[in-house]
Amino acid sequence: MKRLLSAIALSTAFIVPSAWAASDIVDTAVSAGSFNTLVTAIKAAGLVETLKGPGPFTVFAPTDEAFAKIPKADLDALLANKQALTKVLTYHVVPGAVMAADVKPGMVKTVEGSDLKISVVDGKVMVNNAHVIKTDIKASNGVIHVIDTLLMPK
Where are the alpha helices (DSSP H) in 14-112? Predict the structure, then answer.
């Protein structure tokens, strides 16, 4: 009996791990429930497959509340303009998986091509003018850091 249980445990160890693996960045954002507007924007920009790709990526993810700070007409116009939307969304993505402990103040190049300014103000990490409100949400292809403001490239 003990040998049978060991054999079952060993065989399932090769079947189940994919279920234990973290979801990719898009699926992680969907399951969080607080990034509905971001997920809608990712879909509208045609970036789903990219952000489901191997990465790794670091995403500074604005919450639904961050998007709510933008007047509805402006947000609707942005969501309708795929080129502008892609530029804004890729400005929130940095190549590589950078955990909070590895973040250093300074400039960092985004996938969009411009730089983000990482700083610490009163002990709180800032990305440009956005506060980082949660860090190190791990995904199979990178990491998400939650921010409270939508970042706009210049």
Answer: 17-20, 25-32, 36-45, 48-52, 64-68, 72-80, 82-90
